[in-house]
Amino acid sequence: MNIKEKVLIIEDEKSIAQFIAAVLGGQGYETIQARTGKEALSMLSSHCPDVVILDLGLPDLDGMDVLRQLRSWSSLPVVVVSARSHERDKVAALDAGADDYLTKPFGTDELLARVRTAIRHTRTASGNGEIAQKGTYTVGELVIDYNKHQVLVRGENVRLTLSEWRLAALLGKHAGKVLTYDFLMKELWGPRAGGSNQILRVNMANIRRKVEQNPAEPEYFFTEVGVGYRMAEGEQTP
Ligand code: CA
To answer: Which of 97, 113, 128, 227 is the most exposed place for a label (fewest CB within 10 A)?
Structure first.
């Protein structure tokens, strides 16, 4: 038996909603659709979806209001959809509890990857242990060994500082998912960290210099411009 998740698509543009429904339906997901924020809020409680795809520009309510209302009672995975020109909206949505975002226009692979990642992270979210990760994470020629606190590239131990290790480890733990600058700052440097992201940029530049073949075109640690960082999707072994 192969039961797939039920996805609520909240999107007022008919063609986009139909595209999303067709792609997810083709992979065996069950899909339901809402065209307005009000309709979405009532369907959220009456139809019990497993995942939500939320367009931020809705005709009645702001998508952010839908997200905030949803987050007041549920930790359902939410992937927000927004136009490229609205970076600040994406950051605000992620910081308000969205799990990830899709930038319009997006393709089939990207859509499926975001939905898969959002579901996986909800399933594996276990407590608040900061980087209480075990096992190894492998992507391409890079291995993060959580037991030994090591990053290896082609089998060679990369010498990272503690801050670099914590940043790499945290991104690896959430691989495939974008983590905002604000989230990373707070996770790594405490709730009062903030203001400048300089410390993050310096650490990321150092990690890339040590790990990437070509730091200007990273294969492992991606920048989501104006938003944060995302680790390439790979494989977690226990
Ligand atoms: Ca819209």
So the answer is: 128
- DSSP string spanning 46-91? HH--SEEEEESB-SSSBHHHHHHHHHTT----EEEEEETT-HHHHH
The rounded Å distance from CA 80 to ligand 1 centre is 11
Structure tokens at 223: 């920048």
Give residue 130's pLDDT band: very low, low, confident or very high (50, 70, 90).
Answer: very low
One-letter amino acid at 81 equals V
Burial (CB < 10 A; 0-12, 13-18, 19+), residue 153, is middle
User: How close is the Cα of 74 to the center of ligand 1, in Å?
Assistant: 23
Q: In this predicted structure, what is the pLDDT of residue 117? A: 87
204 Cβ partners below 8 Å, 6+ apart? 167, 221, 223, 229
The count of other CB atoms within 10 Å of the CB of residue 175 is: 20
State in Å: Cα 12 to ligand 1 middle. Answer: 5
**CA 49 – ligand 1 centroid, Å:** 20
